[in-house]
UniProtKB/TrEMBL annotation:
Keywords: Signal. Residues 29-284 form the Periplasmic binding protein domain. It comes from Flavobacterium alvei. GO terms for cellular component: cell envelope. InterPro entries: Peripla_BP_I, SBP_2_dom. It is found in: Cell envelope. It comes from the Bacteria. GO terms for molecular function: carbohydrate binding. PANTHER family: D-ALLOSE-BINDING PERIPLASMIC PROTEIN-RELATED. This is D-ribose ABC transporter substrate-binding protein. Belongs to the bacterial solute-binding protein 2 family. It holds the Pfam family Peripla_BP_4.
């Protein structure tokens, strides 16, 4: 009997030590992003990792390569490997809900960055750019720059991403009020530069006479501009982007792109990491959606901005 009691005491002591060791280990944060094939998302992920380190946490970046199945693998890995929070840039507004829900059920908070998921409770908080309002302003500028008339093309992002439609709807809320402006083509290029170039080349064959191109992000804007250069039309067509990426900022300075909308990925990423820190320290009440303002950038105000933010 004494041996049994001694064994139980020893087991309890070992278990207590393991719990103590776990409590003393630094918290780990998984940073799951839709793709690292876009410099904007690279900046978002690396900024989140840097902020997590500053706050005293280990972190690892996972690249979903715009693939929801791979994203699911990353979540399984994060959960099984004992990560304590997930900073999440989703691949799919609807398809990514299951992954966030799985993490929540495992007791792991999820903080969405830039892209949202179609759920009001799966994520602990969603920190999102105010894409709609920004594109209302971009649309007004588009109308002004084209003189309220002309043919134009719209390149959409990933159709399963809410940002694609928030930007498109904001743009059209301004532009559709002018019957002199005619959209001759609207096609998805998946937020991808190379695909945008190919799509634009194809559109130009069917519609050679256009005056403007509105793109759902800067990568597509740069791809569209490349296609226009190849077709000797770059000096005749006004190209608009969205993001505030380095290529776009430099192109506006050089008079190539007409405008973009500056998101602030540093604010988004640092807020997400700080929210995780607050969660670890006991806070459980966070805004379900936190909108981050976006600013229109043109050649007239370009001196106020640098890639991914303000000077």
């Amino acid at each position: 009997m004494k041996k049994l009691i001694l064994a139980l005491v020893l087991f309890a002591s070992l278990t207590s030590c393991k719990k103590s060791e776990k409590a003393e280990e630094p918290k780990k944060i998984a940073i799951v992003v839709s793709t690292l094939n876009n410099p904007w998302f690279v900046f978002l992920a690396e900024t989140a990792a840097k902020k997590a380190k500053e706050l005293g946490y280990e972190s690892k970046i996972f690249d979903s390569q715009n693939n929801t199945a791979l994203e699911s693998d990353h979540f399984e890995n994060a959960i099984s490997s004992g990560y304590d929070a997930i900073l999440f840039n989703p691949t799919d507004a609807a398809g990514s809900v299951a992954n966030a829900t799985k993490a929540k059920e495992a007791g792991i908070p999820v903080f969405c960055m830039d892209r949202e998921i179609n759920s009001t409770d799966a994520a602990t908080s969603q920190i999102l750019s105010d894409s709609y309002s920004a594109c209302v302003q971009l649309g007004k500028l588009f109308v002004d720059k084209l003189g309220k008339k002309g043919n134009y093309v719209e390149l959409l992002g990933i159709v399963s991403d809410n940002n694609t439609w928030n930007r498109s709807k904001g743009f059209h809320s301004s532009v559709d009020n002018y019957p002199g402006l005619k959209m001759v083509a609207q096609q998805s290029a998946d937020f991808d530069r190379n695909k945008a170039m190919e799509v634009m080349e194809s559109i130009l064959q069917a519609h050679p006479d256009i005056d403007g191109v509105f793109c759902g992000n800067d990568a597509m804007a740069m791809g569209a501009y490349q296609a226009l250069v190849a077709a000797n039309k770059a000096d005749k067509v006004k190209v608009f982007g969205f993001d505030g990426a380095e290529d776009a900022i430099n192109s506006i300075k050089e008079g190539k792109l007409t405008a973009t909308a500056m998101q602030f990925p540093k604010i988004i990423a640092e807020t997400a990491a700080t929210y995780a820190d607050d969660y670890f320290k006991g806070q459980k009440d966070f805004p379900k959606k936190l909108p981050i303002a976006v600013e229109v950038v043109t050649k007239e105000n370009i001196d106020k901005y640098i890639a991914y933010g303000k000077k």
